[in-house]
């Protein structure tokens, strides 16, 4: 297949690009190269004849038309987004422009391209979204694909809006779409403003490890390479118009996740143990959702997919990767906003 991946220089998009090329797909990586992007993420495949890159912004309709006509992909996997909840609190405008208007542009460009191409039955538009669109759970329960949307941050509201647009383009224009809503990812190449890399790098530097509120917020954690694997499966085997929840079957309180990372750091850097003495509770994020949990029955029963690594194994690999790849993350610490507390409203 020839796949146009938007956001392929970001964290999850680059995992999709690397895996798709390894599996023999042709990949066109379309990315605007915002603060969150890094072409080093795809360095391992960038010399492959199967890979090409287009610097373009999904808010720019003409650029999208040009890229689609030039490369003539069989499928679009849409991962380009503003993705950091804290930044969405300080500056929601960029989230509306990229996640909502950008998705609208991409849908329209894809619909026009698909129509011009004679509406091939095999064409797919795969929209990648988040479990955050479902809002916050209490102590029990899980999100299914039928759970009502209840987004509570500018980020999750913008992603919810984009999900609605994608479904509408399927129902109204027949665009062949599939959607996925995934839980929190972690793993190599994660931009150092997100929780897992922040904990690793602050522990490494002996700096306070910030934990929001009481640390009792619960997330389901999915290793990014497992997510990429699930996404390619949904692209190939998912039923049209349907959405699939993807989870890691690894629910953990933030504080427990942070302690697990500290224990890994104790093992790998024993001279600075115990790292959990660096844990510092800080003012909570406004509107911080308490608990997310994924019911993975649909993707497990219909497509036979399960995550391959436990959170303990995934975190071990991730901590080792950050310690071994300092050349990757050091330059990113100088990017705007990194290392600062954002989103206090
Ligand atoms: N990170 C998670 O835990 C998680 C979980 C579930 C779903 N998601 C979704 O997966 C997708 C990818 O997330 P991520 O964590 O890899 O994000 P990321 O911030 O690491 O990467 C986003 C990429 O999109 C690009 N981009 C941003 N605005 C663009 C624009 N206007 N035009 C073109 N490119 C643009 C950036 O340059 C960057 O390379 C997002 O849609 C996100 O909502 C993420």
UniProtKB/TrEMBL annotation:
Regions annotated as coiled coil: none
Enzyme class: lyase
Gene Ontology molecular functions: dTDP-glucose 4,6-dehydratase activity
Database matches in InterPro entries: dTDP_Gluc_deHydtase, NAD(P)-bd_dom, NAD(P)-bd_dom_sf
Catalytic activities: dTDP-alpha-D-glucose = dTDP-4-dehydro-6-deoxy-alpha-D-glucose + H2O
A GO BP entry: nucleotide-sugar metabolic process
Family named by the database record: Belongs to the NAD(P)-dependent epimerase/dehydratase family. dTDP-glucose dehydratase subfamily.
Pfam family, one: GDP_Man_Dehyd
All residue ranges annotated as the NAD(P)-binding domain in the record: 4-318
Protein known as: dTDP-glucose 4,6-dehydratase
Protein keywords: Lyase, NAD
Lineage: superkingdom: Bacteria
Cofactor requirement: NAD(+)
Catalytic activity, EC: 4.2.1.46
